[in-house]
Amino acid sequence: MRPLPDRCGGRAETELGYRWARHAWGQGYATEAARAVLEHGFRNLGLRRVVARIDPANGASLRVARKLGMRFEREVRLAGYTHPDHLYVTDRLHSDLTAAARSAAT
Ligand SMILES: CC(C)(COP(=O)(O)OP(=O)(O)OC[C@H]1O[C@@H](n2cnc3c(N)ncnc32)[C@H](O)[C@@H]1OP(=O)(O)O)[C@@H](O)C(=O)NCCC(=O)NCCS
Asked: What is the pTM of this model?
């Protein structure tokens, strides 16, 4: 997680990203690790909103964002890119509600 370098849409944002070695894909690691990072950001760092920029052709990345409870907000076009990315967002309240729903389901 880091401050978004190019102030997407003119506002300061905190960006979540994930990248795993190929042999480790498909075992839930990205979702588990990103969930812990989000919880740390909201609970301990006082963040209110976190975004992820995702290539809409990247099915695994979209799926991870959705499993984290992130939701599509809008398209963003990055300097040097030929196609728009999708901006997924979550905020503290939404993250708390998602965690509550998850624990109610278990
Ligand atoms: C994206 C990435 C981090 C996911 O890591 P991971 O540890 O495999 O993720 P998880 O196992 O937590 O979850 C992956 C989910 O995507 C699903 N998935 C995998 N490939 C998919 C595809 N092509 N289309 C749709 N869903 C897909 C998996 O089935 C799983 O969902 P499920 O739990 O409902 O079955 C990993 O693929 C990666 O490092 N990719 C290269 C870097 C990258 O693209 N990073 C994101 C940049 S925006």
From this structure: 0.92
